[in-house]
Specification:
Order of helices and strands: HHHHEHEHEHEHEHHEEHHHEHHEHEHEE
Distance between the termini: 43 Å
Number of helices: 17
Strand content: 5-15%
Radius of gyration: 21 Å
Oligomer: single chain
Number of strands: 12
Bound molecules: ligand PLI
Number of domains: 2
CATH topology of the largest domain: Aspartate Aminotransferase, domain 2
CATH superfamily of the largest domain: Type I PLP-dependent aspartate aminotransferase-like (Major domain)
């Protein structure tokens, strides 16, 4: 990379407030990891040095957002911050109606309960943990219709988040359009490694679903990041703004679930956005049962204000360029030292390919879980398993799902860590990689019923 290119993603902000980090010894970390049952979700944040567990709710807010927090209108009904959020969801995402929720899964819960009938099918571009669980709890069966390339960590397809239209059409033929509640389309597909979907694919999904009268529900959680990849990789979008691309993406869908904790640069918040008034009416009715009144949906007024302002900041080009630039920086560094990662590097995270990193550990000894634990032991860096533990069990057979991708996610919070933190991260991964032959797997000793990856416990073999 040339000098100028290398400089080009520098952060378009300066640091106003700092939060000290605790430095730990290897002995401290051995103790903490054993107490946490070799599950990075069960570590105390205090014992973590660089926290790459997730980009969800871990963002640094701007002074503009913090100033907005002081303007929180904490009225039970009709908060002015709700109307600001509604205005910005309309302006930037293009949806007509808004139902705020406490976070993304609140929106997933409502839309799943509303639109899925027991026995229905819900196709989507690879599963996401909470999305699929809500679909299953509503009686639906998730069907993965992502392109095959997405399951191959080394395939360089620029839009590995695309839906395979043939798979979708085959499913419609097989079960009949009436049995399909809707198609879930996720932007920058998380479990595939943060891989984007193309505008062309979105257009074709719309054309096919319109023909069959099937709704499309967009998981817009990281749609801004996806818009950036479209601008960089898809012909005809080079000169279009991120905001324009984002709005066009949404225009091919009927509604969206949103976890504001990612793209929207807040620590809590989400929403369900809809175009269909009848569905909105029902959603607005349901939100009061599960979340809160329809003008706050489980959020404080100040949090809605921070999210409304976060929408405006998220689409700023210098921001999104630096955000994705930082992730690419770490990805390029790891690739250059031969560490196996998912390619192309995704939008929110670098994913280590644990199957190739630890080829001597069988999938049932949890290679990705093991690798996440080892990385923490080496340096106090916290990452997340995205493999067989996250995939859970089939609701039909009770057996584990055996995902092709067995990954460890190094997820970058937005506007939080510096380039030196990125360098330390790469150095630690390299150190673990050099010692990989000595690493042994884990056995699961406690398995919760739902979303087991959050609370499962392990012991070293
Ligand atoms: O964590 P929530 O409930 O605000 O959002 C759920 C959710 C929905 N869709 C997608 C694509 C997500 O990535 C997502 C949450 N992701 C988390 C927590 C993550 O660590 O990736």
């Amino acid at each position: 990379m040339g000098k100028l290119e290398r400089r080009s993603w520098a952060e378009p902000f300066k640091i106003k407030v700092v939060e000290p980090l605790k430095m730990t010894t290897r002995e401290d970390r051995l103790k903490a990891m054993a107490e946490a049952g070799y599950n990075t979700f069960l570590l105390r944040s205090e014992d973590v040095y660089i926290d790459l567990l997730t980009d969800s709710g871990t963002n640094a807010m701007s002074d503009y957002q913090w100033a907005g927090m002081m303007l929180g209108d904490e009225a039970y009904a009709g908060s002015k911050n709700y109307y600001h959020l509604e205005e910005n969801v309309g302006k930037f995402y293009g949806y007509k109606y808004l139902v705020p929720t406490h976070q993304g899964r609140g929106a997933e819960h409502i839309i799943s309960k509303l639109l899925i009938k027991p026995g229905d099918y819900v196709p989507g571009n690879m599963y996401f943990t909470t999305t699929r669980l809500h679909q299953e709890l509503a009686g639906g069966t998730f069907v993965d219709v992502i392109i095959d390339e997405a399951h191959d960590s080394q395939n360089l397809h620029p839009f590995k988040g695309n839906i395979d239209l043939q798979k979708l059409e085959d499913l419609i033929k097989k079960v009949g359009e009436k049995k399909i509640s809707y198609v879930t389309v996720a932007a920058t597909v998380n479990m595939a490694g943060g891989q984007p979907i193309s505008m062309e694919n979105l257009r074709r999904i719309r054309a096919l679903t319109s023909k069959h009268n099937i709704k499309v529900v967009f998981d817009a959680t990281r749609a801004v990041e996806n818009a950036y990849f479209i601008k960089m990789r898809e012909k005809g979008f080079e000169q279009r703004s991120i905001a324009e691309i984002l709005k066009e993406m949404c225009s091919y869908t009927d509604g969206a679930t949103m976890s504001g904790k990612k793209d929207l640069l807040v620590n809590i918040g989400g929403f369900l956005a809809l175009n269909d008034y009848d569905v909105f009416e029902e959603a607005r009715n349901m939100v009061v049962v599960y979340e809160g009144l329809h003008t706050y949906g489980g959020l404080a007024g100040r949090d809605m204000e921070a999210m409304a302002r976060g929408i405006e900041e998220a689409v700023q080009e210098p921001h999104i360029k630096a955000r994705i630039g930082q992730v690419e920086y770490v990805g390029d560094k790891l690739q250059s030292i031969g560490v196996p990662i998912v390619l192309p590097v995704g939008g929110h995270a670098v994913f280590l390919d644990a199957k190739r990193f630890l080829p001597h550990i069988p999938q049932l000894q949890f290679p990705a879980q093991t690798l996440a634990a080892e990385l923490y032991l080496d340096s106090g860096i916290r990452s997340m398993e995205r493999g067989i533990v996250s995939a859970g069990r089939s609701k039909e057979t009770g057996d584990h799902y055996y995902p092709k991708l067995e990954l460890v996610r190094l997820t970058f919070p937005r506007r939080v860590y510096t380039q030196a933190h990125c360098d330390v991260t790469a150095e630690s991964v390299e150190a673990v990689f050099e010692n990989r032959d000595r690493i042994k797997g884990l056995k699961m000793v406690y398995e919760p019923k739902y979303l087991r990856f959050f609370q499962a416990r392990f012991e070293r073999l």
